[in-house]
Amino acid sequence: MCQVFPPPPIRLKTLAIFFAFPLLASLLQGCSRQGLEAPKGGVEARPTQMKLKRKVELVQIDKEPFQASFETIGHLEAEGQTEIASGVNGLVDEVLFREGQWVDRDTILVLVDQKRFLSALDGARAQEKKAEAALALSRELEGLTRLAGAGSSGEDRVRAAGNSRLAGAELANARSARELAEHNLFRSQVRAPYAGQINQRKVTAGSFLEDRTVIANMANLSRLRLAGYLPEKSAPVLRQVLDQEHRIYSAMVVSSALISPLQGVLTGVLWENGLLPIGYNMEFTLRAVPGEKFKARLFYISSVASPDTHMFECKGMITAVPDMWRLRPGYTAKMTCALPGKSEALVVPEEAVRAGEKGFVLFQPMPRQRSDGVVEWVAKPRVLQLGMRRPGVVEVLEGVREKDWIVRRGADALEDGTPLDITPEMEKALLKSVEAAKAGSGGPANP
């Protein structure tokens, strides 16, 4: 009996692979064709090639009265800040002050080698007395020689007169030595040059001093000054204001002096203390005293700019305030200086201006017609030439014109040609502005 075996079954996996090859080939061919046509644009554009419309805030610029101001960093300084030197050589006998002590003018701070300087003074005084006695003796001998008349020779008379003159010269020399010894003794008692507060003490009893050794630092805190630097754009303008104020002050002093000399002196005192209602005031704030504003009357602008920073040093006398004790030399100050105003100037919001490779720029909405005939609004950069500033706005000298529309907010995400999301109402206003610009100048604003 023959046994019949059935044919081997065809595996399902093999059949799946066999039929999958043609299907995969057709899919690859279709994808490659579609991939070649995709960059043509339209609805088939890839997401990375599409520019999304940016929402921005627009504003129409106009001319307005403008008073520029600028900010700079300065510091407070005392009218007098001194490193007190010993002035003599010697050992410190006694220190008569401490840190932070308030002292008056000519208060003795340090005594240096008092015995040595007192001894030198006593010796100089003794030499002076000896010279005085020698001069008196010489003059008596000269007088006796003259009385002798014919009984004395001419040589004796000449010698007596010469001895008197030599004795007079020795007396003058001894007197100078005594005055120098008194001066050295005075300098060995180191005194405060003015009324103020001691800041640092740098010596103790027993220290050896040279004439240039600094024994202490002190400051005159009765009048404080604000010191800072002006940019080269603003310095000439403020210098003109300062010169004009000086002319007004001179005229006031002369007219007051003609009325009464005392009134002229009083006018000068009021000017020095900043109590006259004239003068240019700089406002400033301090980090150490937050929330308060102070004023300083400008009295000095350097005639030469720093070669490194191209800035001019300026100083102002701080107007007295009730809590003046809170101000201290060395505090950092943020200065705000207002410049003479203009009747009108073209200004733009400061937030609309960006710094770019070509300088300062802002963006304007401009119409552009697409290939399908649809008009869209895109951002166009305008390079600006800026003038002065004040908080929040900046003056524009070149780059845009009056009545132009600009991007106020949202410019950080823009570049040349970026589509803008404009509302229909705003689009009507923009079209009206473009038509007005064409009618007025024969072309669009800043094409």
Number of helical segments with 4 or more residues: 6
What does the main sheet amount to? Answer: 6 strands, antiparallel
Shape: elongated
Compute the number of structural domains.
3
What percentage of amino acids are in beta strands? 25-35%
N-to-C span: 104 Å
What does this molecule look like?
Helix 2 (114-148) runs antiparallel to helix 3. The chain folds into three domains: 54-67 and 343-441, conserved putative lor/sdh protein from methanococcus maripaludis s2 fold (Beta Barrel), CATH 2.40.420; 87-212, no CATH class; 222-338, Elongation Factor Tu (Ef-tu), domain 3, CATH 2.40.30. The chain has six helices and 22 strands. Residues 1-8, 12-18, 31-49 and 442-447 have low confidence and may be disordered. It has helices spanning 12-37, 114-148, 154-188, 235-259, 261-272, 424-441; strands at 54-55, 57-60, 63-66, 69-85, 90-95, 102-103, 108-112, 189-191, 196-201, 208-209, 214-231, 281-286, 293-301, 311-318, 332-338, 342-349, 354-356, 359-369, 375-390, 393-398, 405-409, 420-421. A hairpin with a 2-residue loop joins strand 17 (354-356) and strand 18 (359-369). The protein has 447 residues and is α+β, with helices and mostly antiparallel strands. Strands 3-16-20-19-18-17 form a six-stranded antiparallel sheet, with helices on one face. Strands 4-11-14-13-12-15 form a six-stranded antiparallel barrel. It has a four-stranded antiparallel sheet with strand order 8-7-5-10.
